[in-house]
Design goal:
mainly alpha, about 0% strand, 3 helices
Length: about 80
């Protein structure tokens, strides 16, 4: 089996081209229309976490699990780029 490799200079150019100084990352700004999608995704993720920990999925407001659920949901929304208003 013959294996073809790039010459070292070509490999270096490929690496330098991928690591160029320009910002190649797509900038994403959260929008109102995407917020409802993010909320439903976070609600689903929080439901799974609550269930895995043995907590009720929708705890009563007077229980400690309610504030725990709220904190997990807020962190998920922050991770998606939304801030509390």
């Amino acid at each position: 089996m013959v294996r073809k490799t790039l010459p070292p200079t070509a490999a270096a150019l490929l690496i330098l081209g991928a690591c160029s100084g320009s910002d190649n990352a797509t900038r994403w700004e959260p929008t109102r229309s995407a917020q409802s999608v993010a909320e439903s995704e976070c609600a689903e993720q929080v439901d799974v976490k609550m269930q895995l920990r043995g907590y009720p999925r929708r705890p009563s407001p007077e229980t400690p699990q309610f504030s725990y659920r709220r904190e997990i949901f807020a962190k998920c929304m922050r991770d998606k780029g939304y801030r509390e208003e």
